[in-house]
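Box S1 | Example of a co-folding query
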Amino acid sequence: MERTLAIVKPDAVSAGNIGKILKEIEEAGFLIAGLRMVRLSKAGAEGFYAVHRDRPFFENLTSFMSSGPVVVMALEAESAIGRWRTLMGATDPAQAEEGTLRRRFGSSIERNATHGSDAPETAASEIAYFFRGVELG
Ligand code: ATP
Ligand code: MG
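Box S1 (continued) | Returned holo structure for magnesium ion
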């Protein structure tokens, strides 16, 4: 079993798409091991996306991610990291395959509805950013 961190980003929360995204997650066979709604501070978003701090989109990305509440989840499944990224689709919704979450609910490369960890080490540190071990089912 593998765990990944998933986020429903502020655009999808404010558009009323939490439920539709959770339905896809459950129907795809992920176990939701942890779930919280949080409002990230700007500093909190900067800490979360620290690997991108030198990228030109860092300022906009962290402003967006702290612009409203997000839903953070620890998802559990075999090959959860890759399977969640497949369900989300490509980073840019315009490039994402038909039927993927970013294609359905994203509106731009920045406002792309969901986040997913990209490797086991980042999944572990991202889950720890939001959840204490004892909180996970
Ligand atoms: P995430 O980490 O959010 O799951 P990702 O792994 O597909 O997305 P990353 O390269 O890690 O993509 O980029 C992190 C986030 O930064 C993207 O989800 C997107 O919101 C934003 N981003 C990435 N590239 C750009 C860009 N060229 N312009 C604006 N925003 C971008
Ligand atoms: Mg990433």
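Strands lie at 2-8, 31-38, 70-77, 114-116. The domain at 2-130 is CATH 3.30.70.141 (Alpha-Beta Plaits).
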